[in-house]
Amino acid sequence: MNRKLLLLITIVFLLLFSFNNDLIAQEDSNLPDTVGVGGVNWFAYPFVFFTPETNWAFGAGGVISFKLSDKLKSKPSSITASGYYTVNNQYDITIQPEMYFFRDKIKIWSKFNYGKIFDYFYGVGNSTPETQNDKYLQENISFQIKIQPKLFDERLNIGINYEFRRMNVADKRGNPFLEMGTFTGSDGGTTSGIGLAASWDSRDNIFYPHTGGYYEFNGSNFLKFLGSNFNYSKYVFDFRRFFNPSGNQVFAVQTYFMIVTGTPPFYDIALLGGDKVMRGYLYGRYRDRFYYSAQAEYRWPNIIWRFGVVAFAGIGDVAASLAKVSLATIKPTYGFGVRFRIDELQKLDLRVDFGFGEDDNSGIYFSVNQAF
Fold first, then answer.
1. Which residues of 54-65 are buried (b: 16+ CB within 10 A; e: fewer)?
2. 298-343 pLDDT tens trace
């Protein structure tokens, strides 16, 4: 059966068999946009999909949101999780908490991932060709945490960023780039790095902002005395701005940069694609030490009942360095998405995006929250 048809069936399955403890209670449009301390909203959904690499896969995802402060207009904390298991013994589990403590004085964001999956590696660069043996089997455990106290201003958080990853290339599957062993990390390894995390957040809502902006910088220095097998540094710049042109409609823009220096493993350099930036490209289809992208998205919420739509477009590419960026290889992305409002109080959405890139690249993405 066609893979995209199966994914469309999954969409219907999600919407028909999703669970939300506040779905009926929130039908009243006059409810306030906040939930009191101690209150908990949750949403869970099952899914099933098929790809040639995974075969049939079955899983579930969900989000829990709550407030840890009775401060007026305090930010909601949330825990997002998803996991799946395939009939050929692949699995992947991701848990992502974002917590606000002490009346929003400390923000703690973290992400945990554990899995054994087929990944893809086409070499390094922005013009790598297709290869017959493009995949390999990885066993991966990773953890990242950002602890950011609020300093000087209600909108400013500055703290530390720590990243840990243990990667095992369990089966190279004849991938020519890994078989040759010429790329750093061809057999896997451990990375451990620490650095600065700073953000300025003026959004009016963290799940579905209408106005304001979010500007973040984080960096990590991976050093052997921290337990890393590789010495390198990674810096990320993520700038977002939101506009409210009419009613509840939103025009959102984002620019994103990643710079990697030193001697990084092939699996931790800048990877283009995925479900948030450059949708439509396989995550890691193109990779290098410098990554830049810009995207815009127009959002129409609640067009019919709880359903909304979005349209997005952007550009991006990777390069060996800023000096080697070439307009000749810049890559486009565009697409549309469907939103289902699962929590009217906090404006939390279930999203399905259909992304398209050049050379028949495309992707379908399921998640909770907006792409950015």
1. beebebebbbbb
2. 999 999 999 999 999 999 999 999 999 999 999 999 999 999 998 8
Task: Count the domains in the chain.
Answer: 1
Please report, for the domain that includes residue 250, its CATH number: 2.40.160.50
Q: Any idea how long the chain is?
A: 372
Closest CA to 14 of 355, 343, 342, 372: 342
CA distance 210 to 79: 22
Identity (one letter) of the amino acid at 294? A
pLDDT tens-digit series, residues 145-161: 999 999 989 899 999 99
- The residues facing 203 across adjacent strands are none
CA angle 320, 220, 145 (to 5 degrees): 130
Q: Per residue in 86-135, pLDDT tens?
A: 998 999 999 999 999 998 999 999 999 999 999 999 999 999 998 888 99
Q: Is residue 7 part of a domain?
A: no
Give the list of residues 6+ apart from residue 143 with CB closer than 8 angstroms, or none.
110, 111, 112, 113, 163, 164, 165
Cα–Cα distance between 78 and 84 in angstroms, integer?
A: 21
Residue at 18 is within a domain? no
**Torsion angles phi and psi, residue 364, rounded to 5:** -120, 130
Give domain status of residue 345, yes or no.
Answer: yes
pLDDT band at 12 (very low <50, low <70, confident <90, very high): very low
**Global pTM value:** 0.85
Which structural domain, as residue segments, surrounds residue 243?
Answer: 100-368
